[in-house]
Amino acid sequence: MPGKTTHRILHLSDPHLTASRADEDGVDAADSLDRILHDVRFVPGIDAVAFARERGIPHI
């Protein structure tokens, strides 16, 4: 393995957050995100959490 890992980043891609909390399938995306962030507290060595959203690509 070349080099040592110096940072661990949790990347959450397109969490489908909306003002109503629910996504197009009726899933409470805000609650799902809350549970993910709650559980990640127990993952050792996470240095950063990054969020990304797919712009212009509809949820299928």
From TrEMBL:
Give the top-rank taxon of the lineage listed in the UniProt record for this protein: Bacteria
What InterPro entries does the annotation carry? Metallo-depent_PP-like
Q: Give the protein name, as stated in the record.
A: Calcineurin-like phosphoesterase family protein
Please name the source species: Actinoplanes italicus
Taxonomic lineage from the root? Bacteria, Bacillati, Actinomycetota, Actinomycetes, Micromonosporales
